[in-house]
Amino acid sequence: MKIVRVQDIIGTEREVHGPGWTSRRMLLKKDGMGFSFHETIIPAGAELNLWYKHHLEAVYCVAGNGTITDKATGETHEITDGTLYALDQHDQHTLRGGTEDMRLICAFNPPVTGREVHDEDGAYLPDTSED
Ligand code: 9YT
Question: Which tens digit of pLDDT belongs to each residue from 1-11?
Fold first, then answer.
């Protein structure tokens, strides 16, 4: 059994920052669960254009607010505490922070391996390591 506390991750190599987000990677590929599990903070007013071409991601909001726009349909959905979105179609999307910082719990399949940041398309590169 593993016990992971987010306060022990803050400021370590498992905390990764990008423009408009901070990701605390509580479980990575090397933790052997078959998915990675992150706490992500999206500051109020941030805007991220994302497209996880190589991953599926489920995101559950536990605090704050924001919106997600599905670029395929143009639809925008409110995100508040208790909202989950699942990018089951490798959906191109825009995530916007609202009036308060959003705290999101994210799971990636396949798992993120470490300190991935988005490429110019908003993707994380595929994991090409064997095992
Ligand atoms: C919600 C989202 O995709 N934000 C970008 C960061 C990502 N969730 C991560 O690496 O934790």
Answer: 999 999 999 99
> If you measure from the C-alpha of residue 51 to the centroid of ligand 1, how many angstroms do you get, rounded to a whole number?
11
SS3 125: coil
In 3D space, the residue among 106, 122, 91, 112 whose CA is nearest the CA of residue 20 turns out to be: 122
d(CA 77, CA 14): 30
CB 40 within 8 A of CB 61: no
38 C-alpha vs ligand 1 centroid, how far in Å? 8
Q: Are 78 and 64 in contact (CB under 8 A)?
A: no
52-70 residue pLDDT tens: 999 999 999 999 999 999 9
Ligand 1 contact, 95 CB (< 6 A): yes
Residue type for 30, please?
A: K
